[in-house]
Amino acid sequence: MGHFNKTIIIIIILLGFLASVVQGQNYRDQKKLIRLKPNNLLVFGQILTPSDEPISGASISLFDPPGAKIIETIPVDDLGEFLFTLEKGKTFGLIIEKEGFFPYYSQFTVPTDLEEEWEKSIQLPDGLQNRYKLLFPFKSNDPANPEIINEIANTLSGFSKLEVWIPEEIDSLFPLRINRIKNILLEAGIESHRLYIGIPPGNADQVIHLQMISENTLDDQNDTAGTEENTSEDPVTPDKWTLQFVASKNKLQSSSLKGIINYKVFHGKDGFYRYTYGIYNSKKESEAGKALLKSKGFSQPFAKKIEDLQKL
User: Fold this and answer.
1) Taking a C-beta distance cutoff of 8 angstroms, is the pair 225, 262 a contact?
2) What count of other Cβ atoms lies within 10 Å of the Cβ of residue 169?
3) What contacts 100, CB < 8 A, 6 or more positions away?
4) Residues facing 171 on adjacent strands
5) DSSP for residue 243
6) Tell me, what's the pLDDT at 264?
7) HSE (side-chain half, CA atoms, 13 Å) at 251
8) Which of 83, 106, 123 delimits the end of a domain?
9) Separation between Cα atoms, residue 110 and residue 89, nearest integer Å
10) Domain limit, last residue, from 185, 216, 247
11) pTM of the model
């Protein structure tokens, strides 16, 4: 009988432990379970809002500056905390994203003089938007909402470490529009080296995400219905071809797309979000787009007909 009671107690303890795991992640408890590899360190910390409150509902991505790629993305736990196991002496970046906040980038080198754990908490600065959208009339190099650039310039003037990140767009007007933005910022006294194109800057503490869109792209996005998201200026018709480069059960954060903006998302009945790039007249034409996707780290893009994706 005593053995039976002990068994019940053990089961109750296990159920209690599983319930706590289901309710939410707790990185403080996970630290106790990790066995470190040689020359590794637990990097643990809390993300705080400008008012010193723990942030909730945010994601934090581990970024490799030398390789210019995101290694891993995790959610913060219920206490706004994060946990990574990293090699001592190596340099990493953290990209923090949350609705209502701008993507925040912080770079650091893992200490070599600590044995097991390094606590690194981060407080987000006040007074910055999470994202700006700069709207261009069709086939124009001058923004339709120049007040956005003026607002960014004023913000940059007040924060010397703040930089601007513009993800690269595959658009013939993109280089001309970039030059126009640079000229406007230069006229406002903002140094051109604070503007980064393509990947997030590897040496900034604070980053504004500026997205450049054309008016017809905006119209496409507003008219998009349920199962298909369109951020490309190219018309979608069933007989066209495209390149699928990612399929995921969960909708991806923009940081996971590595600066690719002109993409489409097809949400299938099987639950998968399929991310595609480019619209082509034939499968052979689609080969031209593979080089760009591979340069961004998507190693196996493949051609697919639009009508096949719409049927999934």
Assistant:
1) no
2) 24
3) 130
4) none
5) E
6) 85
7) 8
8) 123
9) 5
10) 216
11) 0.42
With a cut of 80, say whether residue 253 has pLDDT above it.
Answer: no
**H-run or E-run covering 5:** helix 2-23
Q: What is the CATH number of the domain that holds 303?
A: 3.30.70.1070
Pick from 249, 250, 217, 253: which is nearest to 235 by CA?
A: 217
Half-sphere exposure of 74 (CA within 13 A, CB side): 20
3-state secondary structure of 287: helix
pLDDT tens digits, one per residue of 63-117: 888 777 888 999 999 899 999 999 999 999 888 887 656 567 788 899 999 989 9
Least Cα distance to 198 among 258, 248, 153, 285 occurs for: 258
**Residue whose entry in the numeric block shows the structure tokens 């009945």:** 269
H or E element that contains 175: helix 174-187
Contact 184, 203 (CB under 8 A): no
Among candidates 148, 155, 168, 147, which has minimal Cα distance to 194? 155
Which residue do the tokens 């601007």 mark?
A: 164
Q: Distance (Å, rounded) from C-alpha 213 to C-alpha 171?
A: 10
